[in-house]
Write a structure and sequence with these properties.
The chain has 313 residues and is mainly alpha-helical. 67% of the residues lie in helices and 0% in strands. The chain has 14 helices and no strands. The two termini are 46 Å apart.
């Protein structure tokens, strides 16, 4: 299916209420961003094209509301709409450039009067300058590598626990949290990011399996909505087909709820093993287990998914 057929199909899906209007507008905006030549906006620079995409995201719903099949194919109507936005944006950028140029020229014309008013001349730039003296920089500590950090004695009892938990939650820890830890304990940020990436790489196969499981939940939910009684009643099928749809609806609903509950309860919660953490941090597995147990003691059962991963290989 080419892009034109894809855009036409989006209109049909929205008309049949199989896809949300906002999702359809978003997908067309992606097409405009990636295949801008199809929409006749290749002659514009990247700034204008980006403005066109943003404007379409805001106003693209009008394409679906105003389109009439007598106008021709839907994709041609969309292309015409995008070209109209492009012309508007081009005019806006041209007017902004003219205003900037006029302001610049007016500033040059006004400079002599302002200079005389404030007793200012350009000769001051030709005067002798005092050599620049660099100020003494304040003393800063050298960032510490993770292995060195775990090896030394630290007065804060939660410091090493925080590092262990951050690496255990490698797929969930954010950049802000990593930077916060590095700033608080003077850790080498590059080394920390490298350790997080190593933990992620060790879980790549498990991550693929979890994504496949999540996709199966999404497919079950799609069939749950597709064969729902409210949706089927609109097509008024025959009695045998109605029974078939009912069976499919019940099966997909049961599968969707069962797998969603299993995922919510942490069936596929995964984290790097203690062995992998110990190798990266230069400590033994028992120390990793000790810090995790300490975290459970301090923070309670809010530390999920760690118990089942404490002794994995």
């Amino acid at each position: 299916m080419n892009k034109k057929e894809f855009i036409d199909e989006l209109y049909e899906e929205v008309s049949r209420k199989e896809k949300k209007l906002a999702d359809a507008v978003q997908e067309i905006a992606i097409c405009i961003q990636t295949d801008y030549r199809l929409f006749g906006i290749a002659k514009y620079d990247e700034d204008i094209r980006s403005s066109i995409v943003l404007d379409f995201i805001k106003t693209g719903y009008r394409v679906f509301e105003r389109y009439d099949r007598t106008y021709g194919s839907f994709h041609n109507y969309v292309i015409s709409f995008v070209k109209g936005i492009a012309q508007t944006q081009a005019k806006f950028f041209a007017i902004s450039a003219i205003h900037s140029k006029v302001n610049f020229l007016n500033g040059i014309d006004m400079f002599p009067a302002e200079a005389e008013k404030h007793d200012f001349t350009l000769n001051v730039f030709d005067s002798i300058k005092v050599p620049y003296a660099q100020k003494n920089k304040p003393f800063t500590l050298q960032p510490v590598k993770l292995k060195d950090f775990m090896a030394k004695r630290i007065s804060d009892p939660t410091a090493k626990v925080s590092v262990i938990l951050a690496l255990k939650a490698c797929y969930d820890v954010s950049d802000y949290e990593i930077q916060l830890l590095c700033n608080q304990y003077n850790l080498d940020e590059e080394d920390f990011y490298s350790a997080v990436q190593e933990m992620k790489d060790s879980l790549s196969e498990k991550y693929k399996y979890r994504k496949a499981y999540e996709n199966s939940i999404n497919a079950a939910y799609f069939n749950h909505r597709k064969y729902s009684p409210e949706f089927i009643s609109q097509s008024d099928p025959s009695e045998p087909m109605r029974n078939l749809y009912k069976t499919r609806y019940e099966n997909s609903t049961r599968l969707w709820k069962k797998r969603s509950l299993a995922l919510k309860r942490g069936r596929f919660h995964f984290s790097p093993t203690n062995k992998k953490l110990a190798q990266r941090l230069g400590i033994c597995e028992r120390q990793v287990g000790y810090y995790i147990t300490k975290a459970r003691t301090q923070y309670g059962e809010g530390i999920e998914g760690l118990e089942e991963n404490c002794t994995g290989n």
